[in-house]
Amino acid sequence: MLGTLADGRLALEEIHRFPSAIIQENGELRWNSEAILESLWTGVRLALEKEITISGISVDSWGVDYVLLDAAGGKLAEPHHYRDERTDAVFPRVRQQIGDEFIFAETGIQFMHFNTLYQLVAELEANPELLKKSAMFLTIGDYFNYRFSGAAVIDESLASTTQLYNAHQRQWSSALIARAGLPEAIFPKIVPSGTLLGKLKLDSSSIEVIATCSHDTGAAIAAVPAIPGEDWAYLSSGTWSLLGVELESPLTTEVVRQHNFTNEAGYGGTTRFLKNIVGLWILQECRRSWTSDGMDYTYSWLMEQAAASEPLRSLIRPSDDRFMKPGNMPAKIVAFCSETNQPIPETPGQFTRCILESLALLYRQTIGVIELLTNRHLSRIHIVGGGSQSELLNQFSADATGLTVVAGPVEATAIGNVLVQALALGHLDSLTAGRQLVADSFSVITHQPQQTEAWQQAYAKFTNL
User: Fold this and answer.
1) Which residues does the annotation mark as catalytic?
2) Cβ-based burial of 336 (10 A; exposed 0-12, middle 13-18, buried ≥19)
3) pLDDT at residue 325, as a whole number
4) pLDDT 10s digits, 427-437
5) Checking DSSP bridges between strand 380-384 and strand 232-237, what pairing results, if any?
6) Which H or E run contains 165?
7) Is pLDDT of 229 > 90?
8) What does the alpha-carbon distance between residue 335 and residue 323 come to, in Å, rounded to a whole number?
């Protein structure tokens, strides 16, 4: 994506889009990082062919996954995919051995089986020789920034997703690393979001490589076009739904741990206090199953069918463990509805509506907990990311929560990446100015709550599932 700041506006242009490169290797799910890197270089070359002056470049990515490097800086193996099953047994054992209270007090991060903490312990147990050869690990976005710049560091927004970073001290948790039995020498330097890493490794290049918010959600939240002073929540909507608020400091009380919320690092030392919950992954997996059965439904068609289907007919608990894993998702939804004595979805439209309405009700429940934990009364939700294109889900979210929903911009992660680069290069003087720039440059759609009584009844049903 090419971002251009001119005349008080930010313009975004897609240069090169490519599919995620997931591979199976000896029965394990991994990322083909070389294929991703080559696609990134293709995008760089296409941008340079425009013969314009490019000031900066930065890569952001999903969290928790990592690449192991040897002493010479070479990659030792392709990185595991966070949905690989290798941490399933490790996850409960590490928590029992170290203690949830200690882990959360150190990190403020919610407990998910794919966090880097459990991945590294799984690596240590399954392949100790590989870890012995490792001089360092780098999280995914920072690994690609390293390949572009030669600077082997981790931006704190990605470091904070590992569940090995002390949220209060803003550095690695030496105590937790020791208790997990991990080699502290492999943990690299942490740098603030917006750090200049060096010039792009091309002949005579003057392009700065920048660690923006290397975590995609951190970048997306930087791009929320919020009005200063309003009490707002954000929802980064896509495969995952990341729902939370921006705080000045971490919130790591015992009641926060019990509700399994997380404190991730945001731009400028802020905290993204949020719940990482399943999102449109459920619908994506349904579509994958239908496609494998020869029914290649488009998302636009599914949304049309859902809009025409009976409201609030069947609900699921999206947070149920069964919906987190790949597999025959329509069959899992049928099983859940059968177990809870609800009508079973029969058409693609009914399945889609069931998923969207259930997500909206989960958002309501999560908003209620956020208000309780932070002692705030929220007035609106800013929905950003690919999921913000679903007007049906956005309206359901307004209906379910009773809050105003502001949807957009869609490419919030890329916009936030560009904003933090601009801040690092001195092209913008504050994040507030950057957010105003987003509001001036991109259109949003506002949804007001409707049919609140029907949704109240549905919420009562949802909480009893």
Assistant:
1) 216
2) buried
3) 87
4) 999 999 999 99
5) parallel
6) strand 165-166
7) no
8) 11
